[in-house]
Task: structure prediction
Amino acid sequence: MNRQLRTARPDHLAWIHPHSFRKTVATRIEQRYGTLAASRHLGHSSTAVTENAYLARPKVQADYTNAFAYSPD
Result:
């Protein structure tokens, strides 16, 4: 399958590999049904493996810079 994928995908999508699909499915299941459901779907014995290796993490962190804003009393 990996050879077929390499042959079929354009160069700008070279980052896609079979594991990408597994990670996408895990993330979607986790978003809707929770980490335990995603972990069970993937056949993991622990949610730790699912959390560390499969679930997508937010690329942008929340903006907390307003905590440092000057506010005269």
Notes: Residues 67 and 73 are 15 Å apart (CA to CA). Residues 18-56 form one domain.
